């Protein structure tokens, strides 16, 4: 059986030769065998992007970074995919994130420079850079940012716009605008879309007085680009407002909030300096000053996670979410706390609870980081469940039950017992051989053959399995394959009775006269075999078959070549070629 690394090597060769579809197929096979290797996802991302499938390239790049956040090429792959999708700000953010970890990486530097050049390039076609937006042309520079990833959360928080989200047509148009902001010009007649557009302009510091001067506003103003990714333990300090005539209680509350933010900033600095106990004390001070802000508790949880105090981290995350719900904190903040809680459970080895935490985080607010973590943990849990289920002693008990059912001709029960034994101990060849025998009794020849092939992968010299394989191939009317299986068994054990008798019977079947219907059925089975198809397409064999009719002497001379003789015997055994 081909290993995952061998599939990766085949994928690399296909990618270098420009056969991107084949490369994707090989990388997918490698991932199916071992989905824990980040390199496989990275390589498949490159193949998808080379093929022009940037969406799948982005998904694989995300999976790669989810498995190994310290893999340099993961950031290059993700940045390139986002660049191809024309999500310039997201691409720049990923490149910059990678450069904070690997500041001297040439690939990241080159990718960042390339996407910045394309982002700053005029988007109006061949006309002047001051030309107004019109159908089929790009929006003014920076306006595409109005429809960024945070647009949905802004709509959800707006009392007027929130009701529009129940309209499927509205949601479809919003999703289209997020993919291609240039579609706005074709939706200007939709009042709901224009309400959203004006709200987004206001949120980004622009004003829109009337629809008549829309184009003038676009010419005069650009929206600021907000691309910097917020660190998990930092939060922008709110701008100070001048509130006249505050009561003494309100004044004290306001001063406490300002002091709490300063204490939090101090905690952040201490955390960066790895002074964890001092950081915890600073966050405690912030919590005491302003117990309504969940961020301080969430930051404490981050410190506990770094200190490997997972139970404390879980408690802080739980408390943070409760405070956030009571005080109506942003959904994103609550989701981050739940994701951090999931990481703590993951570190404790409780994958089941960790997965539930990730799902709760997803309900609060969707994030790609949380989704990648969820998929990784689900894969790890499946592997852990399979490993935990294995038990050699229980496997032997199940096998003996299967033997009893088989002797009593209770074929269905025998299949169930043997399958249980295989799950308990998947590396025992004899159990798979027994399962194949039971599957033959219920006429599942394809399933039986799969089990026999698996048994031979475990023990290639298991002669009893080779004999069983030949028997199954005879039942499937694949006589040419059956002869190979029997001969392989005899090569290992020359006096094996089962292989000797099987080879004799199949040779008799090949040389016996058949009805026209039987001959056609055998030939149809053979023609579905890729090996037979390959032999028939071999130019040498085509000439030999032609010579048997037109020039028998040349055909007989060709038969002195062992490889030609073996191929002809397969054609005869399969029923494709008839002998007189």
Quick summary:
With 580 residues, the protein is an all-alpha fold. It is built from 30 helices and no strands.
Describe it:
- The protein contains 30 helices and no strands.
- Mean pLDDT is 82; it is low at 123-138 and 206-244.
- With 580 residues, the chain is mainly α.
- It starts with a helix and ends in a 6-residue tail after the last helix.
- The longest helix has 25 residues, at 248-272.
- 71% of the residues lie in helices and 0% in strands.
Q: What do the pLDDT scores average to?
A: 82
Described by its quaternary structure, the protein is: single chain
Question: Spans with pLDDT under 50 lasting ≥5 residues?
Answer: 123-138, 206-244
Major beta-sheet overview: none
Global shape = elongated
DSSP E strands, number:
0
Structural class from helices and strands? mainly alpha
Strand content: under 5%
Helical residue percent band: over 70%
- Tally of helical segments: 30
What is the radius of gyration? 34 Å
Report the span from N to C terminus.
Answer: 39 Å
Order of helices and strands: HHHHHHHHHHHHHHHHHHHHHHHHHHHHHH
Q: How are the elements arranged and paired?
A:
Blueprint: H1 4-16, H2 20-33, H3 38-51, H4 54-67, H5 72-84, H6 88-101, H7 106-120, H8 151-157, H9 168-179, H10 191-203, H11 214-220, H12 248-272, H13 276-289, H14 294-306, H15 310-326, H16 331-348, H17 351-364, H18 368-389, H19 392-407, H20 411-424, H21 429-441, H22 445-458, H23 463-475, H24 479-492, H25 497-511, H26 516-527, H27 530-536, H28 539-550, H29 552-558, H30 562-574
Helix pairs in contact: 1-2, 1-3, 2-3, 3-4, 3-5, 4-5, 4-18, 5-6, 5-7, 6-7, 12-13, 13-14, 14-15, 14-16, 15-16, 16-17, 17-18, 19-20, 19-21, 20-21, 21-22, 21-23, 22-23, 23-24, 23-25, 24-25, 24-30, 28-29
């Amino acid at each position: 059986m081909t290993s995952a690394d061998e599939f990766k090597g085949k994928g690399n060769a296909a990618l270098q030769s420009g056969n991107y579809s084949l490369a994707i197929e090989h990388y997918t096979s490698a991932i199916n065998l071992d989905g824990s290797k980040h390199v496989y996802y990275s390589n498949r991302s490159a193949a998808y992007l080379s093929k022009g499938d940037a969406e799948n390239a982005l998904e694989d790049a995300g999976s790669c970074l989810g498995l190994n956040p310290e893999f340099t090429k993961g950031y290059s792959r993700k940045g390139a995919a986002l660049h191809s999708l024309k999500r310039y700000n997201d691409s720049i953010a990923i490149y910059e994130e990678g450069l904070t970890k690997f500041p001297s990486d040439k690939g990241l530097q080159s990718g960042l420079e390339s996407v910045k050049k394309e982002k700053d390039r005029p988007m109006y076609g061949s006309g002047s850079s001051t030309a107004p937006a019109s159908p089929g042309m790009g929006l003014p520079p920076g306006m595409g940012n109005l429809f960024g990833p945070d647009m949905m959360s802004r709509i959800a928080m707006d009392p007027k716009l929130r009701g529009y989200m129940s309209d499927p047509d509205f949601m479809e148009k919003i999703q289209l605008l997020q993919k291609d902001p240039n579609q706005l010009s074709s939706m200007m007649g939709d009042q709901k879309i224009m309400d959203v557009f004006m709200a987004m302009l206001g949120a980004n510091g622009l004003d829109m007085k009337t629809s008549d001067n829309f184009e003038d506003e676009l010419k005069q103003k650009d929206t600021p680009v907000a691309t910097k990714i917020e660190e998990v333990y930092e939060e922008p300090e709110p701008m100070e407002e001048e509130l006249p005539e505050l009561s003494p209680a309100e004044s004290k509350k306001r001063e406490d909030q300002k002091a709490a933010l300063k204490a939090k900033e101090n905690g952040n600095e201490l955390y960066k300096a790895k002074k964890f106990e001092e950081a915890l004390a600073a966050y405690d001070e912030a919590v005491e000053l302003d117990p309504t802000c969940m961020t301080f508790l969430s930051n404490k949880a981050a410190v506990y996670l770094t200190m490997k105090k997972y139970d404390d981290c879980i408690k802080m995350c739980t408390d943070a979410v409760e405070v956030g719900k009571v005080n109506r904190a942003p959904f994103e903040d609550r989701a981050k706390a739940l994701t951090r809680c999931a990481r703590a459970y993951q570190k404790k080895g409780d994958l089941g609870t960790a997965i539930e935490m990730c799902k709760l985080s997803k309900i609060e607010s969707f994030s790609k980081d949380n989704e990648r973590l969820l998929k990784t943990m689900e894969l790890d849990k499946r592997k852990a469940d399979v490993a935990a289920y294995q038990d050699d002693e229980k496997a032997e008990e199940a096998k003996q039950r299967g033997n009893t059912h088989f002797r009593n001709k209770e074929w269905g029960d025998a299949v169930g017992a043997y399958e249980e034994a295989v799950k308990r101990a998947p590396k025992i060849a004899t159990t798979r051989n027994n399962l194949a025998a039971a599957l033959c009794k219920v006429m599942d020849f394809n399933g039986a053959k799969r089990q026999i092939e698996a048994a031979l992968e475990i023990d290639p010299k298991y002669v009893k399995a080779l004999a069983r394989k030949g028997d199954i191939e005879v039942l499937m009317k694949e006589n040419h394959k059956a002869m190979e299986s029997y001969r392989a068994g005899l090569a290992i054990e020359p006096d094996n009775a089962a292989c000797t008798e099987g080879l004799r019977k199949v040779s008799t079947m090949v040389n016996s006269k058949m009805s026209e219907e039987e001959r056609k059925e055998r030939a149809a089975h053979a023609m579905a075999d890729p090996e037979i198809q390959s032999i028939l397409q071999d130019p040498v064999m085509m000439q030999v078959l032609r010579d048997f009719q037109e020039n028998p002497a040349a055909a007989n001379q060709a038969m002195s070549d062992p490889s030609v003789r073996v191929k002809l015997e397969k054609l005869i055994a399969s029923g494709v070629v008839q002998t007189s």
